[in-house]
Design a protein that fits this description.
The protein has ten helices and seven strands. It has helices spanning 2-7, 44-60, 80-87, 104-110, 126-137, 148-151, 178-181, 185-203, 205-208, 216-229, and strands spanning 30-31, 41-42, 67-77, 92-96, 113-116, 170-171, 174-175. By secondary structure, it is of the alpha/beta class. The mean pLDDT is 95.
Length: 234
């Protein structure tokens, strides 16, 4: 999907080799940390020179200065809301952390915000950067066929998506819920709303606690769910 969007001109993607911006023959980009400790720290100079060159190229191509994001386990956890905000930017420059991290002076001078995929550590920031690029690019107009492709999915409105089904109607003695086969669109949407509420309640109480279910319609759905499941959702 992202590849097709790139071919059709909806987005532009480019990777830049930091080693091309070193000032020594060994193409060294890291060194021992001041203060001691294990591992190596990425030096400020090659990353800075790379970023300056990339920003220059983008500005010469008519783009605004890119929003610089450093991928690090110490950053703010990525959310769908953050992806929406990033998708509004003219361009992004994702800096991948590595080893024991990056010289803090580069971060202070060049980075606009720091983002993490979650409360865990990876060997480098390349995979997190790819995840951010994918999650943000899919929100760019034209990348997906219709806004409903992402507006009806998990996290768009703070709630998890309802279960989905496809053919065959019965698989391994498991049948598709009759309501999904009814052809009654209003009832199907009501069922999906109820299932989304229930799934969020059971799997992500942190999200459920932030949901606004105060509308008359949602209060009615909550009452029905409590009668059907015996669980106290309010």
């Amino acid at each position: 999907i992202i590849g097709r969007a790139r071919q059709r001109g909806y987005i532009e993607l480019a990777c830049h080799q930091i080693r091309d911006y070193t000032t020594n023959r060994q193409k060294q980009v890291d060194d021992y940390p001041y203060g001691g400790g294990p591992g190596m720290v990425m030096q400020a100079q090659p990353i800075y020179d790379c970023c300056v060159d990339v920003i220059r190229q983008m500005e010469e191509a008519g783009h605004a200065r890119p929003h610089v994001v450093f991928m690090t386990a110490a950053g703010t956890p990525l959310t769908e809301e953050k992806c929406k905000q990033l998708a509004q930017k003219d361009s992004l420059l994702l800096v991948c952390g590595h080893y024991e991290g990056i010289d803090e002076r580069f971060i202070e001078e060049c980075v606009d915000e720091e983002i993490s995929l979650g409360d865990f550590v990876m060997t480098g920031g390349e995979i997190p950067a790819m995840a951010v690029a994918d999650a943000v690019c899919r929100l760019v107009p034209g990348v997906l066929s219709d806004p409903s492709c992402y507006e009806n999915e998990s996290h768009w409105n703070g709630m998890l998506e309802a279960p989905q089904y496809s053919r065959p109607e019965v698989w391994h003695d498991r049948a598709v819920p009759p309501i999904v086969l009814s052809g009654h669109h209003a009832n199907v949407e009501k069922w999906r709303r109820k299932q989304g509420i229930l799934r969020t309640y059971r799997r992500r109480p942190d999200l459920y606690g932030r949901l606004d279910l105060s509308s008359k319609q949602d209060r009615r759905l909550l009452k029905e769910l409590e009668e059907e499941t015996g669980e106290k959702l309010t």
